[in-house]
Amino acid sequence: MDLCYEKKPGWDKLDKQACMEYAEGYKAFLDTGKTERDAVEAIVARAEAKGYRPFTRGMNVQPGDKFYQVNRHKGVILAHIGHASLADGVRLTAAHLDAPRIDIRTVPLYEQDGMAYFKTHYYGGIKKYHWLAIPLELRGVVCVCKDGKVTRVPVHVGDKPGDPKFVITDLLPHLASEQMGKKATEVIKAENMNVLLGSIPSEHAEKDDKDKIKRAILEYLNDAYGMSEVDFLSAELSCVPAFPACDIGFDRSFVGAYGHDDRVCSYPAATALIDDDETPAHTAVCLLVDKEEIGSDGVTGMQSRHFDTFLGDLCRAQDVLLDACLEQSVCLSADVCNAYDPNFPDVSEGRNDARVNCGLAIIKYTGARGKSGTSDASAELMARIRCILDGAGITWQTGQLGRVDQGGGGTVAMYLANRNIDTVDAGVPVLSMHAPFETISKHDLYMAYLGFGAFYRD
Ligand code: MN
Ligand code: MN
């Protein structure tokens, strides 16, 4: 009997080829799903191909049924109805699809000193200096109002071969002696994070017209998207890193990409459900939400009633009270955690922080300043999850969010636990989390996929 607990890398125990192949699918998803809207579309397409149908209130709900429901283009719930009644609860995974990025403001376009720019407002917790001097692409929608009708126009610039890209410029080191002496939080002010858009004046402008470059940009946007300047008000445009996901390392054991947090959990949570054709014992649900990076508020965030309404509608079809279903349910709050980084050992505590290649990290609590802002899963629940994972031969490990009082943070776990659902955080450790280019281990990604699958089948 092994009396000691030790985190151990699991490469020697897994099907390496299957793991590498799964990572290829994940990389393709990362490149298409860089915003929550794009991620929802990709997941819905995959679910529909495996027989998932849109769920609406009043539909029959039978074992084996596969449903999905999209929440305002930015979130999606998948449900595979199990043999047991919904009164016995659901096996729920909850992950988020939004990621830190640079949002475009509502009156963004201006011209200054011979160049045109967008004003921006960063989204989520970033190190602002990370976003300077890297290629950016533009993604989102413009909703144009014409003759009393709303048309939604998708915008994608910079993701196709040959597309132009965008950039927020940085100062050359030769003139940066003052900048280099500043605190990292002050290296670039948010108001100076303006995105460079162009510099050729319009040919249609009158001689005395001011802002001829801005005019040229508006002409381009009108041509391409049928929009004028006021339509930025009803648009959601974001700049995200323009580089694709790629393998990292001679042995290709890592994936480097934008937005692993939290696609490295939402992708395995969704695909583990979608890929399994067998009707589960309990209804299996994958909940993918938006707005986690800014506090989970709003109609598309985890605090929205959308999830309760959806599950309530499912329950009503089986004559089950929503509250009865919730109290029997179990949830893996599928979000990333920090991976111990040997380059920055001082912020971690080696025994408890998760390590790359040691598998799916189960995190009893997150929070900060004495466990504030966490639901702190019970010992009973931790044991139950351990049993499921061990039973399925999953390599898993414990995790925590760095040294105590080093900082901290939270996940959506508490919002699910507050609904009377037994909830624990389970996710993939990430290096350089919240940087424009994050790194994860393919082994851990694959363990998340297998682990979530075992959980759904429990
Ligand atoms: Mn996250
Ligand atoms: Mn995050």
List descriptors:
458 residues; 9-stranded mixed β-sheet; 6-stranded antiparallel β-sheet; binds manganese (II) ion
What does this structure look like?
By secondary structure, the protein is an alpha/beta fold. Helix content is 26%, strand content 24%. The protein contains 10 helices and 20 strands. The strands form 4 sheets. The chain has a 9-stranded mixed β-sheet, sandwiched between helices. A hairpin with a 2-residue loop joins β7 and β8. α1 crosses α10 and α5 packs across α10. The radius of gyration is 23 Å and the shape is globular. The two termini are 26 Å apart. 46% of the residues are buried. One manganese (II) ion binds next to loops.
SSE layout:
Blueprint (H helix, E strand, L loop, with lengths): L15 H17 L3 H14 L3 E2 L11 E6 L3 E6 L9 E7 L4 E12 L2 E9 L12 E11 L2 E9 L19 H4 L14 E4 L13 H14 L9 E7 L4 E3 L5 E4 L2 H15 L8 E7 L16 H12 L4 H7 L1 E4 L3 E2 L21 E4 L15 H13 L4 E3 L14 H5 L4 E6 L1 E2 L7 E4 H16 L1
Parallel strand pairs: 1-2, 4-13, 4-14, 14-18, 15-19, 16-17
Antiparallel strand pairs: 2-3, 3-13, 5-6, 5-10, 6-9, 7-8, 7-10, 11-12, 12-20, 16-18
Helix pairs in contact: 1-10, 5-10
SSE order, as H and E?
HHEEEEEEEEHEHEEEHEHHEEEHEHEEEH
Helix content: 25-40%
> What hetero molecules are bound to the protein chains?
manganese (II) ion
Alpha-beta content class: alpha/beta
Approximately how much beta-strand content do the residues carry?
A: 15-25%
Radius of gyration: 23 Å
